[in-house]
Amino acid sequence: MASRADSIASNMSLANFSKATELRQRIWFTIGALIVFRFLSFVPLPGVNPLILETLYDQTRGGILDLFNTFSGGSLERMSLIALGVMPYITASIVVQMASALHPTLAALKKEGATGRQKLNQYTRYGTVFLCVIQGWFLAAGLESFGAQSGLQAVVNPGYMFRVGAVISLVGGTMFLLWLGEQITSRGIGNGVSLIIMAGIVAQFPTFVSNLFEGGRTGSIAPGLIIGFMIMVVILIVVISFVERAQRRLLIQYPKRATQRGVMQADSSHLPLKLNTAGVIPPIFASSLLLLPLTITQFAGAPGAVDSATGGFVQQLNFYLQPGQWIYLTLYALGIIFFCFFYTAVVFNPEETAENLKKNGGFIPGIRPGKRTADYLEYVLTRITVVGALYLAIVCVLPEYVIRQTGLPLFLGGTSLLIVVNVTVDTISQVQSHLLAHQYGDLIKKAKLKGRKR
User: Are 336 and 351 in contact (CB under 8 A)?
Assistant: First the structure.
């Protein structure tokens, strides 16, 4: 019966899709905005030689640049106007969220509803501009000295004029992406910023696939290895899709109330606790911290720019922090687990949730309201966070280990898969919601017409 009902629901959704004019307009608007984003990723910064830049970028692969370049859809590699992408906004929003959980003034703003959220969003935008200016300035300065030891110059006319122009261009590019993301959220389908990040990652997939099959064609990669890797990716996608929608639903009961017929009836609902409350934040933070020293030493030209003793230490540090090395994988997994617990504690407050339940008269069966409820929520949240942290560590570490051991010419980590699957599932859910709303709207219109005829 359940499968028959699902089949009927899916058929109704497909039938309603052709009639949902507003939904089609939203989808076309989203596709058009993402096309604009892809066009901008090919517009270079003024004063940069793209041919020399491509040569120099190939010499620094393996650092944090590859991670950010994947998120920006290759914009950082081409040093386009949107080279910074939306990562400054993501960083600023994370900082504001953490500050709102720790600072009393910001915590009070968070509780003010729509007005408080608007104020926090304003602070996030200020933080985004500040981070763009800092990152843009250091990026421009790094471009001027980039490849100095190899005798190549990526910047045509280095100097303060180039730096100022690059900073203005990068800030404008990032803020335009934020505006574009807001337009997608309000006039399109899905979360705009998340879709922009996903579009950047998906844009790199053809390169990954072509490198994989090119290796199979030339014989450098065994066909069985290619098939095994593709099977692993499919399994990871299925696991991510299942776990990201997994919830621990706690039963919440409310006092009995008298209905219109005089019958005492108790209301009940559920408090959903996601298995992975932290999302993709822990892998991004952990990988950024681990790859930062490697990227700094690569830009500095180590070990040639330092003495022999320091150069030997830097060489060892570069070797052990290379993606795929056992020390890197161990620290990566520990960092993911740590940030998973840390960020979960920031975004979910058991005491505040228990207090809100108490004010509304709700309670968990068998648990006394107040502190006992807060302790129980913290106990349950800790247990599911352990499972979620282990899941994130396995999903993110396993592809890195396989790529390192097999030598596959790919940069397709678990973080990229997490973002793509999460955003895809969320977008599909919103499409289904629009179809359901359109279906109910038709039913209401038909009911009104029948009422008028009578």
Answer: no
